[in-house]
Amino acid sequence: MGGFIAIEGLDGVGKSTLVRLLAERFSGHAMCTPGPALRDCRQTVLEAFTDDELAKALFYAASVSSQGKQARSLSERGSWVFMDRYWASTLAYAKARGMTEDLGQLTQILTQPDLTVLLLLDEPERRQRLHFRGATGEDMETLGFGFRQCVLDELQVRANLVVDISNHKPEAACSILAQAIREKLGEA
Questions:
Q1: What is the pTM of this model?
Q2: Which of 1, 2, 11 is nearest to 151 (CA)?
Q3: Contact, 86 vs 6, CB < 8 A?
Q4: Which run of H or of E encompasses 33?
Q5: What distance in Å separates the CA atoms of residue 166 and residue 150, rounded to the nearest whole number?
Q6: What is the C-alpha to C-alpha distance for residues 95 and 27, in angstroms, rounded to an integer?
Q7: Residues 6+ away with beta carbon under 8 Å from 97
Q8: Residue 76: what pLDDT?
Q9: Cβ(95)–Cβ(154) under 8 Å?
Q10: Cβ distance 20 to 130 under 8 Å?
């Protein structure tokens, strides 16, 4: 049995690391949005849409659509797929950045993961990680309380599973997360 698992959370909580570790543990695939083909042009596209939050969200929606179809195809063949950010992040960050348009109807046509996991991390620990890795402009947005809370509120609404990985090294966090995923999907 496989599954398509979206891993969501604020910048710096360890999504990329845990997606990679989970893919290794489950002998599956690590994916992300935007996908690798769009990562190189992402900054150019976002700069072109500087004052248009809807256009930015639609760019991410296009990536979600493409990556989601690939993830579902793999999971239907029995593979595990772990996605670093997906539709919930697209909606949450767009709302926090002031987008007022309702993209809810897209939710109905986009590929839905089998499970959406929200990772939580103690805020001082998250800030330390951001500082250590060299925080980007996008990372810096999440340091503001109002922005951060808006994103978290939106992600919590869309998550099927919330896992706090505070005070755990990556391998231990991976074990906790793997067990929670198996229990939630009825595999424990």
A1: 0.93
A2: 11
A3: yes
A4: none
A5: 20
A6: 35
A7: 53, 56, 141, 147
A8: 96
A9: yes
A10: no
Q: Tokens for 15? A: 């999504």
CA distance 19 to 84: 6
Q: Which amino acid is at 37?
A: A
ω into 113 cis (within 30 of 0): no
Measured distance CA(79)–CA(27) in Å, rounded = 8
**pLDDT per residue over 82-101, tens digit each?**
999 999 999 999 999 999 99
CA dist., res. 102 & res. 54, Å (int): 10
pLDDT tens digits, one per residue of 161-179: 999 999 999 999 999 999 9
User: At 163, is the secondary structure helix, strand, or coil?
Assistant: strand
The CATH number of 3-184 is 3.40.50.300
- At residue 15, what is the residue type? K
Quote the Cα angle for 184-185-188, to 5°.
80
Residue from 27, 31, 14, 36 nearest 113 by CA:
31
Give CA–CA dist 92/104, Å, rounded.
12
Phi then psi for 120, rounded to 5 degrees? Answer: -115, 145
What's the CA gap between 186 and 188, in Å, rounded? 6
Express as a percent the part of the chain with pLDDT over 90: 77
In 3D, which of 188, 178, 179, 174 has the Cα closest to residue 21? 174
Q: How far apart are CA 188 and CA 39, in angstroms?
A: 36
